[in-house]
């Protein structure tokens, strides 16, 4: 019966499904029936292993035939032998006893005159993965290391690694390790590379193969002989090498230069990885290497294989983190092809956003606009949010496009546009007029909860400018019973409350209904609690409510002044050429795209809105406790300069535009040297010695400033020159009723940042003051002679004028800067 | 380091499964396919993870070629390897399809055995492998005279003696050894164009990626010399010869190519190994020597009955002697379009409404240079507003330009040495594909 079946298959008459079911049903069961009855069942004859192996590769369990296959491996036909070995290696673990029978045949094959048979036997002997067979395998493996044929040596070398991993606990013979080291000089490059691989595995506990100077140079010299896979392996292992001198380093780098621009992406990537690890102390060399791989990476981006394109794109994103301008001239390479898969399109858009500048913005937006109506909704939404990102710099053009998209009245597009607008308004409050105008009527097309949440947030915050806001909310409130999304309900509560504050007459009734529903009928505890909170808050009076609810309308920290900060290469060097950049998760998640923006922004003091004033003396304590080193100096300063207790406050908040207006306007006046006495403000410039400040991260600076209620508005990326920070705060002295507004700029132009280390010991509290006004000159304690090189120039503007408060503020600022710089040092 | 390699059909059938390190269980295949099917789109991400298993896959020939690996391995290496593996399988089996992989599974296991050992890539060179691979390929398409009849290369008109059938290069390399297959060598110049044309007809972007591929069926060939155009120049500054310059921006060569005669005479010298290799790759950006092959003149409006009227004129700017084939224009249309009525200028064209991809696809089997075709589409779109017109476009074009290169790269001569005994045939083929040809409306 089986016989007939095989011949049927041989002519290819039956289809695959039938073949498999026949196999499973009849062959296996009949084999089982036949086995006990007749031992001379003829299975290993003719071409049978072929069929068995095929069935196995399709996932059919063929382990029942193991003993028959053991017999079959004694054949002289090499093709058949190979197939039998494939079978045996798959099922050896299930039949360890029977596998013992194979070992004799295999050992015999290891003596075969044909090197191909020898290597085949050796490879499969080690592939059986049976610890019980180790003793039989060692001897042929040792012989294999000295075989005449390179193909046998290749197998034998890796065989030792397999053997070691079978019994990781047992010590491997030192003689073998030595022999493997000596085989690094084998004439066959694959043997050499395999030795590296085997030693890496065997010596894993000791940190892998020893990479010393002679080995390194030997490997580098033979790099050219290896094929690309071998080159990648060698380059990877060499990452552990640390050159002893700079000369040696540059010798190595010049040897590697050719492979850095290799047309094979794997070699290029491995070489760049090696460059980055060798020159981790030399940022300039690293950056030069990144420039050099631009060409090959761009070529890989246009490769015929989509997957290769994708990989190259993901790695270009890494490079752009350090050199934002790297691909500026080649932005057209990142235009999406219309047939490209969504995952490539989305990455390309992320890259495009990074490359935008004054010249190409029109072209880029035109291109992105085309993607917004893509069939794939994910691509369309990604395109819309990319336009929103560009809108942070070029808001007018982008808003025009976004508003136009609302006209399409398609739910996924409208939802993405509204979310994008919300995020944009949060960062660029000047867009709010256009956005408010565009919002009218778009609630009809919104379907998903994300989009509706965004709309509600916008209506709550800018309700006074959207004429139809109460009616829109009313529709939502009427449908709240059937609302499924928790987020929408919470947002609806907040939005209605906010709208109530600015348009009480229209909103009062619906707010009452909403609160009643949420408190009495709503089953979800979160919603109910929030409603109760608002209800009680309203009992406390309208002023209290206003204080709590009318928080910030925009991102208080404007982020960086120019583009994104350039990260040092070391931030991502480790993940270069690994799977990490390709993962879904590594796509920078838009922090603001989920939920309301104010909940997700960085805020070290969560209830800043409620207790906006913080006593200065308390701050002093905090700093003294947290950092003992600066205790003396900062305490001295405070003691000497703070006369009356001073408190700083962030309230009322100052918008960036307002800051800019005040700063520039007064600046101009100041430059004209008008009569300062008549003005109600003062200017003051000081130099504070704190060398490491410009190196510290914007986040920590911002956090430290916020701790003492100074708001940083904008800053340049760290490590750039000149380095600037703009900040503001309100002061109020305890004994005077009025408060003053202080605007400030920190400027660092430092020519010799490396001198900082020498001076760090003395970087304590010398305040050099160059009072531009006569009144301020007396404040100068010690006008330092060397002021200018490691000092940060502080320019302050106070309105109205209050010398005492200004002095107090200056001392707080100095303390903060010193604390930060001493932490850094 | 590669832990497992498997090949799945698009329906999830296990075609090939090989575990190199025995570290993760064989359920990996199932886990992978579950992940693929769980996704909504038909384009799963290249890298997927499940616990500490990492799947990297490529799609080739409608199959999933998957490797499982560790997180710190190089994606460039693994993807290049999977592509190379697919190319090897194609070389050995003749073509890539579910059927050919199924029929040649023994050969593929044999290949995998030699190519990877313990998860480390040993060699992928067909020169080395040919000594080890014993199994004969099973050709999925039995040879028949019918194949050789009128079907020309890329649909070109055939003159039997001059043009090889398009199937000639899709046969297994090994059959040349025993079955007395013809000793032939194919040199293909393949270019891919990506073009963006603005709504005002301006050329916004034009990139060409080209490569010269050699597919060799010669059992022993010591050296081959490929002569390119004398005028071939690289980079902006260099100009050579007296004719119209053939310029490309960047060139890279396969490492086996010797370039000693390249600077003086534009000759590549190489010893091709059996199978297919890319010997040279080049790129050209933003500076095409001739006009882009297609121009579109659209008129889009709403008629009084609330229907969408699209009147498209498509002009082919190729030289009159050449023609584009398999032209397909994909015109995105507003959501909710119901029905399409069409007026096309010749009967061999066709147009179809594809609601799934929200597009009208207009197919032109053959488009002679210098001619112009027009089409009128009337679409029934409920609730059509003026804003909906925004959804029309950009138009994507896909096509093949046989016997033509966009950059003008040509092969002057092809010499084999020593001169092959017996009948050997040398073929040179040119083709330009559209990688992405977008015309904004």
From TrEMBL, chain A:
Main location (coarse class): membrane
Record SUPFAM superfamilies: ARM repeat
Pfam families membership: Adaptin_N, B2-adapt-app_C
Region (Disordered): 586-609, 757-799
Gene Ontology, cellular component aspect: clathrin adaptor complex; endomembrane system
Subcellular location: Endomembrane system
Keyword Transport applies: yes
Domain of life according to the entry: Eukaryota
This protein's UniProt keywords: Membrane, Protein transport, Transport
Topology versus the membrane: Peripheral membrane protein
Keyword Chaperone listed: no
InterPro entries: AP_beta, ARM-like, ARM-type_fold, B-adaptin_app_sub_C, Clathrin/coatomer_adapt-like_N, TBP_dom_sf
Coiled-coil segments: none
Domain Beta-adaptin appendage C-terminal subdomain: 646-818
GO biological process, one term: vesicle-mediated transport
Similarity section: Belongs to the adaptor complexes large subunit family.
Protein name: Adaptor related protein complex 4 subunit beta 1
TrEMBL record, chain B:
Any one GO BP annotation for this protein: intracellular protein transport
Keyword Transport: yes
Function, in words: Component of the adaptor protein complex 4 (AP-4). Adaptor protein complexes are vesicle coat components involved both in vesicle formation and cargo selection. They control the vesicular transport of proteins in different trafficking pathways. AP-4 forms a non clathrin-associated coat on vesicles departing the trans-Golgi network (TGN) and may be involved in the targeting of proteins from the trans-Golgi network (TGN) to the endosomal-lysosomal system.
A GO cellular component entry from the record: clathrin adaptor complex
Domain MHD stretches: 182-440
Protein name: AP-4 complex subunit mu-1
Organism: Acanthochromis polyacanthus
Superkingdom, taxonomy of origin: Eukaryota
Annotated CDD domains: AP-4_Mu4_Cterm, AP4_Mu_N
Keywords for this protein: Coated pit, Endosome, Golgi apparatus, Membrane, Protein transport, Transport
Membrane topology: Peripheral membrane protein
Subcellular location(s) of the protein: Early endosome; Golgi apparatus, trans-Golgi network membrane; Membrane, Coated pit
InterPro entries tied to this protein: Adaptor_comp_med_subunit, AP2_Mu_C_sf, AP_mu_sigma_su, Clathrin_mu, Longin-like_dom_sf, MHD
Principal location: other
Family statement drawn from the similarity comment of this UniProt entry: Belongs to the adaptor complexes medium subunit family.
């Amino acid at each position: 019966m089986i016989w007939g079946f095989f011949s049927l298959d041989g002519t290819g008459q039956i289809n695959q499904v039938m073949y498999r079911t026949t196999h499973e049903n009849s062959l296996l069961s009949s084999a089982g029936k036949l086995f006990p009855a007749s031992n001379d069942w003829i299975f290993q004859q003719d071409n049978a292993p072929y069929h068995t192996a095929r069935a196995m590769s399709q996932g059919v369990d063929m382990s029942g035939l193991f003993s028959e296959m053991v017999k079959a491996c004694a054949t002289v036909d090499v093709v058949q032998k190979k197939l039998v070995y494939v079978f045996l290696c798959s099922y050896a673990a299930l039949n360890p006893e029977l596998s013992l029978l194979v070992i004799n045949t295999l050992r015999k094959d290891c003596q075969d005159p044909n090197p191909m048979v020898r290597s085949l036997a050796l490879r499969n002997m080690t592939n059986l993965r049976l610890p019980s067979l180790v003793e039989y395998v060692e001897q042929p493996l040792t012989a294999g290391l000295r075989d005449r044929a390179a193909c046998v040596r290749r197998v034998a070398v890796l065989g030792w690694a397999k053997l070691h991993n079978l019994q990781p606990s047992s010590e491997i013979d030192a003689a073998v390790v030595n022999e493997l080291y000596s085989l690094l000089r084998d004439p066959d490059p694959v043997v050499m590379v395999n030795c590296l691989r085997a030693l890496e595995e065997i010596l894993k506990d000791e940190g892998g193969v020893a990479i010393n100077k002679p080995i390194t140079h030997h490997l580098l010299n033979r790099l050219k002989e290896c094929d690309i896979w071998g080159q990648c392996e060698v380059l990877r292992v060499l990452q552990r090498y640390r050159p002893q001198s700079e000369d040696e380093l540059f010798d190595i780098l010049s040897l590697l230069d050719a492979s850095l621009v290799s047309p094979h992406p794997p070699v290029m990537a491995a070489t760049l990885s090696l460059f980055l690890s060798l020159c981790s102390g030399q940022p300039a060399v690293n950056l030069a290497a990144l420039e050099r791989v631009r060409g090959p990476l761009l070529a890989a981006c246009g490769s015929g294989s989509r997957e290769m394109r994708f990989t190259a794109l993901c790695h270009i994103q890494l490079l752009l983190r350090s050199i934002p301008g790297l691909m500026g001239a080649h932005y057209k390479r990142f235009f999406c092809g219309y047939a490209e898969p969504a995952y490539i399109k989305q990455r390309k858009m992320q890259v495009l956003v990074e490359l935008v500048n004054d010249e190409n913005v029109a072209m880029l937006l035109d291109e992105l606009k085309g993607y917004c109506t893509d069939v794939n909704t994910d691509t369309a939404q990604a395109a819309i949010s990319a336009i929103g990102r560009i809108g942070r710099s070029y808001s007018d053009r982008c808003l025009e496009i976004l508003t136009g998209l609302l006209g399409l009245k398609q739910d996924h597009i409208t939802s993405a546009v509204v979310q994008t607008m919300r995020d944009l308004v949060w960062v660029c409050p000047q867009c709010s007029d256009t956005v408010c105008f565009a919002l009218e009527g778009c609630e009809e097309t919104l379907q998903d909860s994300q989009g509706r949440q965004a709309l509600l947030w916008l209506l709550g915050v800018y309700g006074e400018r959207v004429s139809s806001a109460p009616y829109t909310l009313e529709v939502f409130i009427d449908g709240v019973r059937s609302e499924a999304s928790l987020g929408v309900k919470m947002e609806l509560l907040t939005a209605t409350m906010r709208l109530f504050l600015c348009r009480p007459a229209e909103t009062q009734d619906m707010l009452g209904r909403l609160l009643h529903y949420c408190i009495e009928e709503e089953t979800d505890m979160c919603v109910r609690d929030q409603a109760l909170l608002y209800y009680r808050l309203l009992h406390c009076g309208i002023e209290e409510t206003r204080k709590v609810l009318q928080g910030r309308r925009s991102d208080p920290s404007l982020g960086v002044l120019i583009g994104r900060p350039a990260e040092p290469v070391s931030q991502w060097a480790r993940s270069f050429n690994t799977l990490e950049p390709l993962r879904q998760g590594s796509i920078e998640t838009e922090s603001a795209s989920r939920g309301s923006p104010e909940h997700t922004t960085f805020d070290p003091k969560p209830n800043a809105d409620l207790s906006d004033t913080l006593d200065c003396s308390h701050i002093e304590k905090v700093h003294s406790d947290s950092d003992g080193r600066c205790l003396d100096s900062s305490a001295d300063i405070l003691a000497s300069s703070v006369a009356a207790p001073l408190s700083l406050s962030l309230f009322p908040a100052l918008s960036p535009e307002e800051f800019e207006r005040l700063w520039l306007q007064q600046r101009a006046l100041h430059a004209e040297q008008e009569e300062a006495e008549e003005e109600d403000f003062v200017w003051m410039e000081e130099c504070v010695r704190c060398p490491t400040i410009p190196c510290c991260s914007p986040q920590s600076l911002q956090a430290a400033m916020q701790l003492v209620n100074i708001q940083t508005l904008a800053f340049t990326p760290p490590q750039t020159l000149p380095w600037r920070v703009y900040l503001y705060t309100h002061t109020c002295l305890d004994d005077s009723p009025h408060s003053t507004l202080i605007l400030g700029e920190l400027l660092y132009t430092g020519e010799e940042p490396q001198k900082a280390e020498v001076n760090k010991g003395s970087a304590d509290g010398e305040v050099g003051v160059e009072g531009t006004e006569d009144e301020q000159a007396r404040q100068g304690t010690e006008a330092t002679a060397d002021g200018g090189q490691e000092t940060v120039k502080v320019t302050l503007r106070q309105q109205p004028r209050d010398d005492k408060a200004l002095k107090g503020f200056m001392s707080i600022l100095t303390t903060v800067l010193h604390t930060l710089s001493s932490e850094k040092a | 380091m590669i832990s497992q390699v498997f090949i799945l059909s698009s329906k999830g059938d296990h075609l090939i499964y090989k575990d190199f390190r025995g570290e993760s269980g064989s359920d990996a295949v199932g886990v992978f396919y579950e992940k693929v099917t769980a996704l909504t789109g038909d384009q799963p991400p290249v890298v997927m993870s499940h616990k500490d298993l990492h799947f990297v896959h490529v799609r080739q020939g409608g199959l999933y070629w998957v490797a499982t690996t560790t997180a710190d391995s190089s994606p460039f290496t693994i993807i290049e390897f999977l592509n190379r593996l697919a190319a090897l399988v194609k070389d050995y089996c003749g073509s890539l399809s579910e059927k050919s992989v199924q029929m040649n599974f023994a050969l593929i296991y044999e290949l995998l055995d030699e190519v990877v050992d313990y998860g480390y890539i040993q060699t992928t060179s067909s020169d080395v492998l040919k000594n080890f691979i014993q199994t004969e390929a099973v050709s999925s398409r039995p040879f028949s005279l019918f194949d050789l009849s009128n079907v020309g290369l890329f649909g070109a008109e055939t003159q039997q003696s001059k043009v090889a059938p398009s199937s000639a290069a899709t046969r297994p390399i090994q059959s040349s050894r025993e079955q007395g297959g013809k000793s032939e060598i194919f040199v293909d110049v393949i270019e891919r164009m990506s073009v963006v044309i603005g709504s005002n007809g301006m050329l916004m972007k034009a990139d060409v990626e080209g490569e010269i591929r050699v597919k060799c069926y010669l059992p022993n060939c010591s050296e081959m010399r490929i002569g390119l155009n004398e005028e071939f120049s690289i980079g902006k500054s260099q100009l050579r010869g007296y004719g119209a310059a053939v310029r490309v921006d960047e060139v890279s060569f396969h490492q086996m190519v010797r370039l000693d005669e390249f600077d003086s005479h534009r000759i590549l010298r190489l010893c091709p190994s059996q199978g297919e290799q890319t010997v040279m790759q080049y790129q050209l950006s933003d500076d095409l020597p001739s006009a882009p092959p297609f121009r579109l003149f659209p008129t889009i409006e709403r008629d009084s009955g609330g229907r969408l009227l699209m009147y498209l004129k498509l002009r082919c700017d190729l030289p009159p002697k050449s023609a584009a084939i398999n032209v397909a224009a994909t015109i995105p249309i507003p959501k909710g379009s119901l029905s399409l009525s069409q007026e096309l200028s010749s009967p061999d064209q066709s147009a179809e409404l594809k609601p799934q991809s929200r597009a009208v696809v207009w197919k032109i089997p053959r488009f002679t240079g210098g001619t112009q075709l027009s089409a009128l589409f009337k679409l029934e779109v409920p609730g059509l507003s003026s804003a909906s017109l925004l959804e029309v476009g950009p138009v994507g074009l896909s096509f093949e330009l046989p016997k033509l290169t966009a950059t003008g790269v040509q092969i002057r001569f092809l010499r084999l040495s020593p001169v092959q005994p017996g009948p050997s045939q040398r073929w040179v083929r040119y083709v330009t594909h559209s990688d992405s040809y977008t015309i904004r409306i």
